[in-house]
Amino acid sequence: MNIRRSAAALAAVTAVAVIGTPAAVAAGSSPSPSGAPTLPAGLYGSTDPKYDGVWRQSLALLAQHTVGVRPARQAVDWLTGQQCANGAFAAFRADPSPACGAEVAVDTNSTAAAVQALAALGGHDAATGKAVSWLKSVQNKDGGWGYTPGGPSDTNSTSIVIGALAAAGEKPAAVVKDGKSPYDALLKFALPCSGESAGAFAYQPDKKGALAANADATAAGVVAALGQGLAAEAGTGHASARCSDSGTATPARAAANGAAYLAHALAATGHLTSALPGAEDQPDYGNTADAVVALAAQGGAGQADKPLRWLERHATVWAQQSGPAAWAQLIFAAHATGTDPHDFGGTDLVKALDATGPKPVSDSATARAAQKDGNGEESSGGSGHTAAWIAGGVGAVVVVGAVVLVAVRRTGRTERQP
Question: What's CA 336's distance to the chain center, in Å?
Fold first, then answer.
């Protein structure tokens, strides 16, 4: 769900860039700012990790695990070393040796993403247990979470935490505050079945309490309403093209309605669009990848075919410029649809992700060999794509405007950040 919904949404960063190519819409397309800290050896990506270090590391490790790659020990150690004593994670700590004081800006998104990665890798029960305890301690009275502790709940933050709870073996519906569960919060952000925004999720209500459709929030909300996380599996739910308000509001119905909204938004071009005032509209690669995951999680791979094909044709240039979190998002899209991540429109997503950080213990070639069946032939998938990827284990777009990078999760105004 990228970044979108990403930890880099911590702040707006001043930058000078020109929108016009896939490279220009990616955070990774601009070099690290002067004076940026030396990058740790175990960290994935080459850009300044100040706003997204833990986020991109978590997505990278989770994506590797999803396709059967065993990450480098130093990469996992870097992530666990970022955790504060109370269980929370900040977006990035250049020096993790001092205890986390009040000046360390911990957040729910970084913490929840780290939980999903470490829970999938296994062997980190103490770390994930502390992180989940911290997340529970900062749950809002409406059952949801904001980006920062005590901040108003939003769909994206609530969704990434639901994914973390599920990954850690918790039942999200049973995690309540003042009698409200995370699903109660999600349902509060779901729009009714009327108008062009029928079935969508809002990021959060505006100052007057009104809800506005947000594709980023909708993709996140659909997956979370189904009780899944970033590396969601294909579902078998009802894939209706219509929004329905009949009966009692439930997470399952909200997921179906949200998927219907996304399908409608993707119908014409196969991709979602990111817009900034005064700038030309651009394809939103990260959010489209998240929408593919959401559609597949709701109704199966066939529901996501058109946007998946669009991603195969266009998104690898964006991922190359954006870095590890973007490669991870495409891997999640491939995973959810049963598409071979080693041949995604001719690109080996796994090899590309591996190349952005320390060499894994088992690399993409080893993982690909594991895909072969006993006769040495690749198993064919039922989705009509190259080969279905079978692996063991559990399986923001920062838009660079003319002058600013808008923080996705923080504002909810733009789509996802890579």
Answer: 13
- Round to whole Å and give the CA distance between 202 and 411: 12
Q: Cα separation of 259 and 264, whole Å? A: 9
Residue with tokens 């996705």: 408
CA 203, 270, 58, 156: dihedral to nearest 10 degrees? 10
Q: What is the pLDDT of residue 248?
A: 86
CA 228 to CA 176: how far, in whole Å?
18
Beta-bridge partners for 380: 387
Token pair listed for 416: 């996802």
Distance CA 351, CA 201 (A): 35
The pTM of this model reads: 0.83
Tokens of 248: 């009692």
Residue 303 near residue 255 (C-beta atoms within 8 A): no
SS3 of residue 380 by DSSP: strand
pLDDT of 239 reads 65
Average pLDDT over every residue of 357-377: 67
Burial annotation 20-43 (CB, 10 A radius, 16+ → b, else e): eebbbbbbbbbeeeeeeeebbebb
Q: Express each pLDDT in 156-183 by its tens digit.
A: 999 999 999 999 999 999 999 999 999 9
Provide long-range contacts, Cβ within 8 A and 24+ apart, for 94-102: 94/37
Kindly write down the DSSP assignment for every residue of 252-291, as one continuous string.
HHHHHHHHHHHHHHHTTTSSEEE--TTS--EEEHHHHHHH
Closest CA to 223 of 313, 298, 317, 111: 298
Instruction: Tell whether the torsion through CA atoms of 233, 145, 59 and 73 is positive or negative.
Output: negative
248: number of Cβ within 10 Å:
5
Residue appearing with tokens 């190359």: 320
Q: Are 219 and 336 in contact (CB under 8 A)?
A: no
Q: For residues 352 and 354, give the distance between their C-alpha atoms in angstroms, rounded to a whole number.
A: 6
- For residue 373, count other CB atoms closer than 10 A to its CB: 10
Distance (Å, whole) CA 273 – CA 279: 12
Region for residue 297 given its phi and psi (left: phi exceeds 0; alpha: psi -120 to 50; beta: otherwise): alpha
